[in-house]
Amino acid sequence: MVLPSTYFPTHEENRFAREGEVGLAREFFLKHRPRNLEYLLRNRYDWMNAYLKPGQRVVEFGAGSGFSKEFIRHDNFRITDVEPRPWIDDVADAMDPPYPDGSIDVAVFSHMIHHLPSPVQFFEVMQRKLAPGGLILIQDLNTCFLLRLALRAMRHEGWSYDIDVFDENVVANDPRDPWSANCAIPLLLFRDEDAFRRRLPGLAIERNELNECFVFLVSGGVVVQAKTVELPRWMLRAIDATDRALVKLMPSVFAMGRSVVLRKIETP
Asked: SUPFAM superfamilies per the record (predicted)?
């Protein structure tokens, strides 16, 4: 199947019934703790704990359902979103955070980067808000063939490779729509590390790892909650191991996720 370089479904075309229903997703997860989804979320967040130290100010932007607090272990961890919700600590727009410059030690972003209207402006803002040596921890999508196939089938979110994510004048997503999504943004940002360094020299890439495939598909989704069969943990671990092998063997086909660590550095 040939997939176009640009594809954007409308919200009305979405075949999932619960787009954006973060409150219902949170209620369902905390009540039922579905194994498949919990396994996926643990994979997405648990690796971040190794980068956190006591006393740091850690802030997640675009926290949505607030699942991160179930998996990130830190006494000074605050979660934010653009909309006020009972479980959110602060209302904050990642493009204009209400924090003093240099006040954040670690900024966390889970499946949020692909919603940004201007990725390069976002990273410039984050550099100002980070303390010297501060970190940006990112878990997001990678538009491999299987992910694009799934997105096309469900008409959930779209992608475009026909943009320059490093151009400050490019509008990568509709800034008026918090659920506007260009799922190609993480790949466009991080597939060429040298290009990223040239365009954003104040941020050093310390980790850029592809991951995740069928563990994501059997989860049923974080917010949309497609029907799925609950699997025993041993089977989820086996699927995870298979994912790692497939991602290593054919990343352009199977790698649906990407983990990135950026560090703020001094520039000449």
From this structure: S-adenosyl-L-methionine-dependent methyltransferases
H/E element, 22: helix 22-32
Distance CA 133, CA 265 (A): 6
Q: Which of 37, 45, 92, 43 is nearest to 70 (CA)?
A: 45
Quick count: other Cβ atoms within 10 Å of Cβ 265? 13
Q: pLDDT tens digits, residue range 191-245? A: 999 999 999 999 999 999 999 999 999 998 887 667 789 999 999 999 999 999 9
Which among 73, 39, 66, 49 is positioned nearest to 212, based on CA atoms?
39
Contact criterion met (CB below 8 Å) for 210 and 249: no
Q: How far is CA 125 from CA 64, 77, 81, 102, in A?
A: 21, 20, 16, 11
Element (H, E) at 24: helix 22-32
Is residue 140 within 8 A of residue 113, CB to CB? The reply is yes
Say which residue the tokens 């943004």 belong to: 185
- What would you report as the CA-atom Rg of the chain, rounded to the nearest whole angstrom? 18
> Taking the domains of the chain in order of start, what are their residue ranges?
17-264
